[in-house]
Design a protein that fits this description.
13% of the residues lie in helices and 39% in strands. It contains two helices and seven strands.
Length: 135
Amino acid sequence: MPELGNNESLVLELSDIKVKDVLFTLFLTNKRLILSEKGMKGEISSQIPLPVIVSANAGSGESGEPALTISIKAPDGSDRRMMFAFHDKHGAGDRSDERDTLLHVIEHGELPSRADPRRTGNDLYKGGDDFPVRE
């Protein structure tokens, strides 16, 4: 897991997230979204501060897997898009619940009330009771 800053806490950890055919582990904290390339042992490949996320939309990737597309405001003021595909893990089944949970947290700043790690069979929920709503 990447090193977290002061007053930063982990909310979600999602493995096998595909961005442009590269697999990452996605860490969502109360301050940023962090991508760590699979096998890089916590090194940060990319990070997105939550306030620059303009929108997020659920959909499907090219292979039909659940996907989440976010729009961000780049440092130069332009809008950029990034798609996170929820790669099919062997035996994991449909990962739409994971995508929808990530979407909900990005949009509402908190875990959905239905969040139940037993339902997904995944150690997905790392906390979030004190996840602040973004302004």
